[in-house]
Amino acid sequence: MADYVLVHGAWCGAWCYEQLADELRGAGHRVVAVDLPGLGADAARFHPGITLGDHIAHVEAEVARAGFDRFVLVGHSYGGMVITGAAARLGARIDRWSMSMPSCPAMASRCGI
After folding, report:
1. How far apart are CA 54 and CA 77, in angstroms?
2. What's the CA gap between 67 and 3, in Å, rounded?
3. Which residues does 90 contact at the CB level (< 8 Å), separation at least 6?
4. Of the candidates 31, 30, 33, which has an alpha carbon nearest to the alpha carbon of residue 15?
5. How many other CB atoms are there within 10 angstroms of residue 53's CB atom?
6. Which residues are catalytic, by number?
7. At CB < 8 A and 24+ separation, what contacts does 87-96 make?
8. Looking at residue 108, what is its pLDDT?
9. What pLDDT digit, counting tens, does each position of 52-72 carry?
10. What are phi and psi of 58, to 5 degrees?
């Protein structure tokens, strides 16, 4: 069985992974769906000082708290930026990673978005 770390995008929370997490757990996997600081269930504590670095560090802390040695890392939208940073720090421990509709700020700026 595998361990999964699921990271949401900017406009949702860990709740968006409830069905997937339940299905993975039902198949015997361990799952952590991360609520990023200032977003999701923690949205009431949002403030403009929260950075991408804070979100990356939070994912690292959640991986440590879960006790995952090796894991699959999944990010949706803005979560793609977060898991890219987390992968740079935890890369040797990541078996696979997947991005769903990742946010690509460099491409967006080239397209005038």
Report:
1. 17
2. 10
3. 60, 63, 73
4. 33
5. 10
6. 77
7. 89/56, 89/60, 90/60, 90/63, 93/63, 93/68, 93/69, 94/70, 95/2, 95/70, 95/71, 96/72
8. 43
9. 999 999 999 999 999 999 999
10. -65, -40
